[in-house]
Every structure is written in C-alpha cells, then in structure tokens.
Amino acid sequence: MLKKNRLFTPGPTPLLPVAQMAMASYGAHHRTAEFRALFTRVLADVKEFIGTANDVLVLTSSGTGFMEAAVSNLTSPGDKVLVLSAGKFAERWISLVKAFGCAVETVTAPYGETFSLEEVGRKLTPEIRCVYVQATESSTGARHDIESIAKLVHALPDTLLIVDAITGLGTTHLDVDAWGIDIIIGGSQKALMIPPGLAYGAISERAWQRMETTESPRYYFDLRKERKAAAKAETASTPATALFAGLAAALDYVRQLGDGSLPAGRDALIANAELCAAMTRAGVEALRLKLFAPSSPAAALTAVTAPAEADSNIICKRFREQFGAVVANGNAEMKGQLFRIAHIGYYDYLDTIGVLAALEHVIAETTDGKVEFGSAVRAAQDVYAKVRN
Ligand SMILES: *Cc1c(COP(=O)(O)O)cnc(C)c1O
C-alpha cells in the first residue's frame, strides 16, 4: 500500500496547510510597517491563546531558549531554586539552573508518575526563589497538577512559578493569571501546528520586577531588551519572519475553531486533544498494553509501555516502515521501553482511528497473532460515540 508520511511525535507535530502556504509566500523585511503589523497581531493573538493579561513575547528560538531565559533572567548565581522532576524535560530544567550557578533542590517522582503535593509543600521554603516544572512531561506522557502546585508556591510571598507548558498549551486547561503562573512557555512546533523555531511565553509583573535585581549573564535571551523592542512592534535582532506569518495563520485557524473567538478555539483544540487521548488510551488498553503514565495521563500524548515480546525500537520501526507513521520512541534511558503517540495540535478522528488500526497490526506481528483485529478501534469508537451523544 501507499504510505503517507505522518508525524505522531510530541513535537514537531503535523503542519497546518494554510500556515505552510502563509510561510512559503512571506518575504517582508522585519523593519517595515508590514512586519510590524504582523508582529503586533501575533503578540495580541498569542496573548489570547495563552489566556493572560500579562505581557507576551515570541522569541526566535526553540522552546529551550525560552526555558533558558526563564532561568537567566530570574536568578542570580547561588540562588536557591526548586525543580519538580519526573522526566527528561524536567532534567533539562536541572541542567539549566546548574549552568547558571543556582543551588538546586528537587522533588522527584518516578518516570510516568507525578509529584506528591505533600512533598512539594515540604520542600517549599521561603528561600526558594523560583520553582520550575512542566505542565505535561512529554518524555513520559504524565500531566502535573499545576493548579495545586501554584497554590503551594503562592503561599510564599516571594517565590516565582515557571511552567514549561511547551506541550501543555493547547492540550491542557491552564488558567495562567488566576493560578499565578509567573512565566509560562510554549513552542511553535507543538499545538500551534507550525515548524520549530519560535518560542512564546507570558511574563507576570512579579517576574519583570525580579529581573531588575538578578545578576545572571544574558544577552540574546535578555527579556527586558525584547520587551522594550516589542513596545515598538520590533524584535531586538532578526526574527524568523516566515514563522511569524505561519503563526498568524495558525492562530486564525484556532479562532475559526472557536467561531470567531480565539479562547473558544483554544478550548476546542484542548477538547480535541483530550478526546484523541481518551480514544487512544481505550484502544491501547483493549490490546492489553500498559499505559506508561496511567495515574495522571496527559492529553498531549499517550505513552505506552512496550510489551514483553518486543521493545519499542521494533514497534517504532514497524509503524514507520509499514504505515509511514512516525511514532516517538522513549527518550534517553527510556529508549526501547515505551513508545509515544501525540495528540498535540492538528490531529483528528481519522488520524486517531488510523494509528490505532496500525497499532493492532504492529502488535499482532510482535505477539504471534494474539490480537483480535478491531479491538483497539472498537474501544476507541465507543469512547468517541459516548462523547458525541
Ligand atoms: C518539546 C519540548 C521541549 C523542548 O523544546 P525545544 O523546542 O525542542 O527546545 C521542552 N519541554 C517539553 C515539555 C517539550 O515537549
């Protein structure tokens, strides 16, 4: 059969065709009225998409660039910070805060699980300057309870909360201002359906104030410099102009999903991811496979433990070679142990049913035909039918 190349990876995600068209034709110089108009519109739309009254910035970098900015701008060497760590992306926070000389405390949970709030509460002392966490840990498929964590953090007068929501935004309800998230971070190649290259985020007034006193070195990722430039509808250096054009088109698409309301469109995108995830979990369990993060699964992606008969290297290879589907392997030491199917952004019913039908074949081949064809698809159909009715 023909194979269409399809990404089921938790970033990059499938591209929105109308955004691809917008990018292909965009050639304006960045110091022009034309780009300033685009830039202004994108910042206003990103603000609505995030759902915040805080200042928003869009940086030309991958998501990690904004993560670095959230460390270099908010800390001084020697500052005590807390990282909540249960996966590879949390470990990135640990490496980052160490690179900037912070004294790091951690609350850890095993891969696939989320944190004990009691332990978070115990580790939160007034000397902690910043708390760093993921909304959804893309390496394990777990969702963390940001609302409850935020309540604990804001019991302290002067501790900032920084949330890597790179796969959380657009897949998970996050009430940024009501919960008091001081910096929230997203990336273009996730729910916003365009290629990698832009990171976006919202920054609270408390975080801006902190930046006035911190002493870590920063240059490209100096957020104060970007804020000043943004006030004039500019960026400090050359932005990825074509990606801005793509982002504008993607945000228009989200607005259409909400019949003219961007927040409603964002909520529709979240509901879509939640439904794709619920269908996928039901399908996976119908095949008697184990979810890797069963107690707190994210809508961003579903991580599945590889069955005893086959490691996930083989599973990912079969998906790719037989069906053209790029499913993500486990990261680093989780490679071989699990595979990950994403629901972030531009996925629909047929994508979800299709990947589950393919999964039936992939698992049938690795378990000597013990799979009843249609079982995963049927379970997903039942979930879909319930939501529809
Ligand atoms: C993708 C991702 C990142 C990294 O973003 P880059 O754009 O690759 O730098 C960080 N955190 C999470 C949770 C992610 O899913």
Please give a structural write-up.
With 389 residues, this protein is an alpha/beta fold. It has two domains: 6-12 and 260-388, Aspartate Aminotransferase, domain 1, CATH 3.90.1150.10; 17-257, Type I PLP-dependent aspartate aminotransferase-like (Major domain) (Aspartate Aminotransferase, domain 2), CATH 3.40.640.10. It is 43% helix and 16% strand. The chain is built from 14 helices and 15 strands. The strands form four sheets. It has a seven-stranded mixed beta sheet with strand order 2-10-9-8-5-3-4, with helices on both faces. A four-stranded antiparallel beta sheet has the order 11-12-15-14, with helices on one face. The chain has a two-stranded parallel sheet with strand order 1-13. Helix 1 (17-24) packs antiparallel against helix 10 (241-257) and helix 13 (349-366) packs antiparallel against helix 14 (375-388). The radius of gyration is 21 Å and the shape is globular. Residues 10-11, 62-64, 89, 134, 138, 164, 166-167, 187, 196 line the site of pyridoxal-5'-phosphate.
